[in-house]
Write a structure and sequence with these properties.
Distance between the termini: 153 Å
Order of helices and strands: HHEEHEEEEHEEEEEEEEEEH
Largest sheet: 6 strands, antiparallel
Strand content: over 45%
Number of helices: 5
């Protein structure tokens, strides 16, 4: 038979391009484009949100404690804090289904807060800057220490925290940071994550107005008396239940009171010379007490001396 119009002799009908087939179906084309766009958006959302959720879950399950912290209060109440935090997570917490990975966090900057017991408000203490490198391997337990330096927000916030630390039995601290993480999945696929939020809070023991162990006299060093006054140098026993070493670079005075017949009477002053270091555990700080007798505190002082010396019954026969 003869070739139809548009056909070359010995050839079949011309082939139609698939692009032309799609152009002839605009609804299908728009559906495919929308599907591709949604798939890309879902991938981006998963890339942004999934690591954040995974890391938050791991951080929540981690054990964080302060292994060492030095709070140094210097002249004019300026303060510096040098904390060391211990961060431990078991490999069972780090593991992900069907995925093995390693990750590295190169330093961090975190905002540090303490929770005020009276109203539950988080008060900013300052910023912690650490150059420590944190390495994570999903096949291994993690137990590392992170060291850093605190930049204090202001004298008011540190004064509130110290006051809370002395009066309360515990103090809750919190930190919030954003970190950049470089990771490798299955040992070869590099995936970076930027601006991952990390938050954690921990509760540490505090002084509780020295209720754990009452402040007690360890021994007298010397005493010098004059009419109406007595200067006594002594060493006291003072227990620090917290993990924080407090270093006071300023000398300070404390009022000494004694209770007598339901009232408090001023007996004198306690002078503590700088520097005073209170490390975790038992401490033996020294100071000088100046006792001054006045018309107002005379009866209270006599009662105190009688109580201290005890009843006098003379000497028993040899």
């Amino acid at each position: 038979s003869s070739a139809t119009e548009g056909e070359q002799p010995g050839q079949g009908p011309p082939k139609r391009c698939s692009c032309a087939w799609l152009r002839g179906r605009p609804r299908l084309l728009w559906s495919l484009a929308a599907g591709a766009l949604l798939s890309a958006a879902g991938s981006v959302a998963a890339y942004l949100a999934l690591p954040q959720l995974i890391i938050e879950q791991r951080i929540t399950a981690a054990e964080v404690d302060i292994s060492k912290c030095i709070l140094e209060i210097g002249p004019n109440a300026a303060a510096t804090i040098r904390p060391t935090a211990r961060f431990s997570v078991s490999r069972h917490v780090l593991q992900l289904p069907l995925v093995s990975y390693t990750a590295t966090v190169h330093g961090l900057k975190a905002e540090i807060y303490f929770r005020r017991r009276s109203d539950g408000v988080d008060v900013r203490v300052g910023s912690l800057v650490s150059d420590s490198t944190l390495s994570i391997d999903s096949s291994k337990d993690m137990d590392v220490e992170i060291r850093g330096d605190m930049h204090i927000a202001g004298a008011g916030s540190i004064a509130q925290m110290v006051n809370e630390f002395v009066k309360q039995d515990t103090v809750t601290l919190a930190f919030a940071a954003k970190v950049d993480i470089s990771s490798k999945v299955w040992g070869w696929l590099s995936i970076p994550f930027y601006g991952i939020s990390v938050t954690k809070s921990l509760t540490v023991p505090a002084f509780d107005d020295f209720r754990h162990k009452n402040v007690a006299l360890d021994h007298l060093v010397s005493a010098h008396g004059s009419p109406g006054a007595l200067n006594v140098s002594a060493v006291a026993q003072l227990f620090n239940p917290s993990p924080v070493t407090v270093v006071l670079r300023d000398s300070f005075d404390l009022q000494v009171y004694s209770q007598y017949l339901g009232s408090e009477y001023t007996m004198g002053t306690l002078r503590v010379a700088a520097p005073l270091t209170l490390a975790p555990g038992d401490n033996l700080p020294s100071g000088r007490v100046t006792v001054r007798q006045t018309r107002e505190n005379g009866p209270a002082m006599a009662a105190f001396i009688a109580q201290y010396i005890g009843p006098q019954r003379g000497y028993s026969p040899a």
